[in-house]
């Protein structure tokens, strides 16, 4: 998960210096208005991997904001005073007043996080602890607190490089160093991702900050904070999953943005590879092992990216009696009268069969998010609901393969025009397609968040360059065959 945060997000020093005055102005302006009007208090939870520069980023905030109205609360292991009281007591004691902003290191997440990393508690106990935290944060939000949670992400190789630069004297000051040691990087990342997915809510969102580059890291933190404070001042709402680029035009590259669209496949190579893979898929689907599994294929992507063509190449070698293609459009009145996932649960195939979704449950965090058909809290909680749905499927002997087919805006325009000119393709182009194209950037952000929040070890996303249709079709077939052979 959070593939985008692992990309080398960078900002050169010249760009940072140019952006810095606008960031400072936006931050200070929002903070001073909060100080004057006292409409709410702000709590900034800072967490993540040791060596990611959390302290450095917060120090920069102190230099940009009015430090007289900032409070820094750092928590380690509870001392006698706290041990003799309920666990949340010390966090209650230190809550900021309206008009104030508190930065929290070592928050209410730390005990559950550390205990799970070191296997002192099992998954059920961990879930129970997260449930208590969710209720605590919901109560804070109901009392008008602006709660923003930042997870500083750092790839293992970067963490190792930075930790080598920290001497023992300096490391002793890091209250999180004991659990975030390099040897626990993988487990800490895994547990951190679970925390983020399961406790990110509209009233208490997590923001994942790529931390390889200090300038990008600090600018992203400042921009997100300024945008969130301004949004709550103006609308009374918390911030969304990805802070709106309202300050300085800072943008991040998502995993979807990073797809290499130059990949191509010669026609002669395509014919052979496609035929070989289709034969391979046909053979696998006839095995006894396959009859004990269910296969679910999910196709999402840019409009005109070739989902239909890819699906046709997948089903061509299959027995029509074992698969069904489900084209997903706007929900019917019957479907609207039930919980969102109902219409997908009822399409789950029996074992030995295949369900192919041309668009899917991910429309809630794509179309419904961008077009405003789903409320902010609805699409934000959908990430966790979707992950739980897919985990339930995999635990019940289903294999879930998810494909995002990507093309450039220029290629999409070319294909749209071609559809208008070819009679048998005109039904594929609608006014809605042209309207969606006007929101290309919004859909790109939504797609990036979707991949980050729902690419799990049990149901990973495969990001496919579809600029060349032959390459895309072969990659889809290859991925399906590889997954089946690995998991059967």
UniProtKB/TrEMBL annotation:
Keywords, alphabetical: ATP synthesis
The organism's place on the tree of life at top rank: Bacteria
GO biological process, one term: polyphosphate metabolic process
InterPro entries in UniProt: P-loop_NTPase (IPR027417), PolyP_AMP_Tfrase (IPR022489), PPK2-related (IPR022488)
Domain Polyphosphate kinase-2-related, first and last residues per copy: 12-230, 265-486
UniProt catalytic activity: [phosphate](n) + ATP = [phosphate](n+1) + ADP
Record carries keyword Translocase: no
Gene Ontology molecular function: any one: polyphosphate:AMP phosphotransferase activity
Name of the protein: Polyphosphate:AMP phosphotransferase
Lineage per the UniProt record: Bacteria, Pseudomonadati, Pseudomonadota, Alphaproteobacteria, Hyphomicrobiales
This protein's encoding gene: pap
């Amino acid at each position: 998960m959070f593939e985008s945060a692992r990309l080398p997000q960078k900002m050169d020093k010249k760009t940072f210096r140019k952006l810095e005055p606008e960031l400072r102005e936006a931050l200070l302006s929002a903070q001073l208005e909060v100080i004057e009007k006292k409409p709410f208090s702000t709590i900034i939870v800072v967490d993540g991997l040791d060596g990611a520069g959390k302290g450095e980023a917060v120090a920069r905030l102190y230099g940009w904001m009015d430090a007289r109205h900032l409070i820094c609360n750092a928590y380690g292991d509870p001392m006698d005073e706290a041990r003799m009281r309920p666990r949340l007591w010390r966090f209650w004691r230190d809550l900021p007043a309206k008009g104030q902003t508190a930065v929290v290191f070592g928050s209410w997440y730390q005990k559950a996080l550390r205990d799970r990393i070191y296997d002192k508690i099992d998954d059920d106990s961990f879930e129970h602890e997260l449930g208590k935290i969710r209720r605590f944060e919901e109560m804070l939000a109901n009392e008008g607190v602006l709660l923003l949670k930042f997870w500083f992400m750092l790839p293992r190789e970067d963490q190792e490089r930075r930790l080598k630069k920290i001497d023992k004297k300096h490391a002793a000051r890091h209250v999180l160093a004991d659990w975030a040691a390099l040897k626990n990087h993988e487990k800490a990342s895994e547990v951190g991702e679970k925390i983020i997915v399961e406790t990110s809510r509209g009233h208490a969102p997590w923001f994942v900050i790529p931390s390889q580059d200090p300038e990008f890291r600090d600018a992203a933190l400042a921009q997100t904070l300024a945008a969130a404070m301004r949004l709550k001042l103006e609308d009374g709402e918390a911030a969304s999953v990805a802070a709106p680029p309202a300050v300085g035009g800072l943008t991040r590259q998502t995993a979807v943005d990073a797809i290499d669209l130059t990949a191509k496949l010669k026609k002669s190579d395509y014919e052979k590879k496609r035929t070989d893979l289709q034969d391979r898929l046909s053979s696998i689907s006839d095995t006894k092992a396959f009859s004990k599994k269910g296969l679910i294929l999910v196709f999402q992507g840019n409009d005109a990216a070739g989902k239909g063509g890819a699906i046709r190449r997948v089903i061509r070698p299959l027995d029509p009696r074992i698969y069904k293609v489900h084209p997903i459009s706007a929900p019917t009145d019957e479907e609207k009268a039930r919980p969102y996932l109902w219409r997908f649960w009822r399409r789950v195939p029996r074992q030995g069969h295949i369900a192919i979704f041309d668009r899917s449950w991910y429309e809630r965090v794509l179309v419904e998010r961008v077009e405003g058909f789903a409320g902010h809290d609805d699409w934000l909680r959908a990430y966790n609901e979707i992950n739980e749905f897919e985990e339930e499927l995999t635990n019940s002997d289903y294999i879930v393969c998810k494909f995002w087919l990507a093309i450039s805006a220029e290629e999409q325009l070319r294909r749209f025009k071609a559809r208008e000119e070819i009679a048998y393709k005109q039904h594929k182009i609608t006014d809605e397609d042209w309207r969606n194209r006007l929101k290309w950037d919004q859909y790109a952000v939504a797609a990036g968040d979707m991949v980050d929040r729902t690419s799990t070890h049990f149901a990973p996303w495969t990001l496919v360059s579809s600029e060349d249709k032959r390459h895309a079709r072969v990659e889809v077939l290859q991925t399906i065959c590889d997954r089946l052979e690995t998991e059967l």
